[in-house]
Amino acid sequence: MRQSFFYGTVILITAGGITKVLGFAHRIILSRIIGAEGMGLYQMVVPLLYFLITLTTFGLPVAIAKQVAETEAANNPRLTRRFLVLALSVTGAISLVVCSLLLLLATWISGGLFTDPRAHIVMLAAIPVIPISSISLVLRGYFQGKQNMIPTAVSQLLEQVVRMALVVVMTISFLPLGIEYATAGAVASIIFGEAAGLLYILWQYRKGSKKTAALLLEKPLLQAVSASRASLGQLIRVAFPVTLSRLIGSIAYVLEPMLVPPALVIAGFSTATATGLYGQFAGMAVPLLMFPTFLTYSLSVSLVPAVAEAAYQNNAPLVHRRIYQSMRITLVIGAPCTVLLTVFAERLCGLIYGSQFQEVGFLLKAMAPFSVFLFFQAPLAAALQGLDFAQVVFRNTLIGAIVKTAAMFLFTAHPAFGIHGAVIAMNIGITLVTLLHFASLTKKIGFAIDIKEFGKIGAAMLAMGYSGSYMAKHWFTDASAGQLLLSCTLASTLLYVVLLVAMRVLGKQDVRRIPWIGEQLAVFFPRR
């Protein structure tokens, strides 16, 4: 069932928000069971896992979303099926090779990549996630190309619910064997979550396209690939630069646990302390910073096929409108997230992680103001990819990764900075890549933003931050941390929305587009 760009985006944002809340609750529970040291082990392996998933998917989820959007616009279902068969065949073959190599070389890989030998058992537990997640991502890309976001949304929710249901049992069951086995149990819960999501999306696919499902089961892999070389070439032309971009990001992510703890040791910390500090940074502060990025993920997922379809139809005004619409949604919803993370960083971390992790709040407060650049990064990259400029995204990502990785080691190894050096490097990387993406989009298609409208949102953002800080210091001094956060968040967010309506940034026509409740809410809003 096809949805409009805005409708599909709202579905993904809603599902992404729920998934993020559940995922963050999962991480809170996990951190309280296995502590900073266990989170450090977890964060050593998870970046490698994401890197390998990026390698096995080979950029095909984005490529198939773009190609399916174009074939749907051309009303060519046969070519749509061909692209899906090819994408699944390639992903399945790469997954088989990668998992086999990982099993055979596990001892050598873990010994060469991780400073802590306990990460070996955690890595072994993560291997089954790779093929399951890779196939699931390709199928999601197929539905996204058809601009049907419901299978993606529901499978995400199902994955997280299953993972949440199992993580406590699996972690506590293995805890008596040691912290590394408890962490491996936590990683193993991901397997069951991914499997549940894949089964759902396969069921949706089988239900909606029995003819294609039969084709996938009947046609051998090598025969399907050899018979469709031209289509395979089209997929690879899009997928290869996307893969390079993601590999660069994943490599930088994998390098973090190899660079930051050793750099902290150089700065004068013990190995155990360095692992704990890295766990606070990468396992506690960064997830809070990344929490609102489900907005950008949702927008980028919807934007690739929407822009590809408009570009295929040579509809330049529609291309510009959809890109601007995505950036406007990003700022309107992302701005209050930036404000709340900045103003209430210490209180939020104290409430979530406990007073013993007070340092996490300081790390988050230093990164939070730059989250507004982080929110724009994915939609800008998706717009470039949808317009067939994936190689530009790769170039910008490479520049940002090199600068961030070098800065991370140099600053963190300096005793004056310590773990705060990693924060500085993270901020530099986020800002640089986002500005490069925006400059590239402006150069390629002459894209521009409405400075006046964005300025109004910025003013509302500042007013929200000041009011939230003032209320926390003067009105709720005797309240508990939970009461203070809830009261100040609701009051300052209400002020933000009122200011957006008063300045005619939000209006009746915007609210009416919200699925399910838009018409009812629109009666309370004036026209822009």
Whole-number average pLDDT?
Answer: 82
Strand content: under 5%
Please count the beta strands (DSSP E, at least 2 residues each): 0
Gyration radius, rounded: 23 Å
Helix content: over 70%
Q: Count every helix, treating DSSP H or I runs of 4 or more residues as helices.
A: 23
Question: How is the topology of this model organized?
Answer:
Blueprint: H1 5-57, H2 60-73, H3 77-104, H4 106-113, H5 119-126, H6 129-145, H7 150-174, H8 179-208, H9 210-218, H10 221-226, H11 229-266, H12 271-290, H13 294-312, H14 316-343, H15 345-353, H16 358-367, H17 371-386, H18 390-412, H19 420-445, H20 451-474, H21 481-502, H22 508-512, H23 518-522
Helix pairs in contact: 1-3, 1-5, 1-6, 1-7, 1-8, 1-11, 1-12, 1-13, 2-3, 2-6, 2-11, 2-13, 3-6, 4-5, 5-8, 6-8, 7-8, 11-12, 11-18, 12-16, 13-14, 13-17, 14-17, 14-20, 15-16, 16-19, 17-18, 17-19, 18-19, 20-21
Description:
With 528 residues, the chain is mostly helical. It is built from 23 helices and no strands. The chain starts with a helix and ends in a 6-residue tail after the last helix. The mean pLDDT is 82.
Which labels suit this protein?
23 helices; mainly alpha; globular; 528 residues; 84% helix
Question: What is the gist of this entry?
Answer:
The protein is an all-alpha fold and 528 residues long. The chain has 23 helices and no strands.
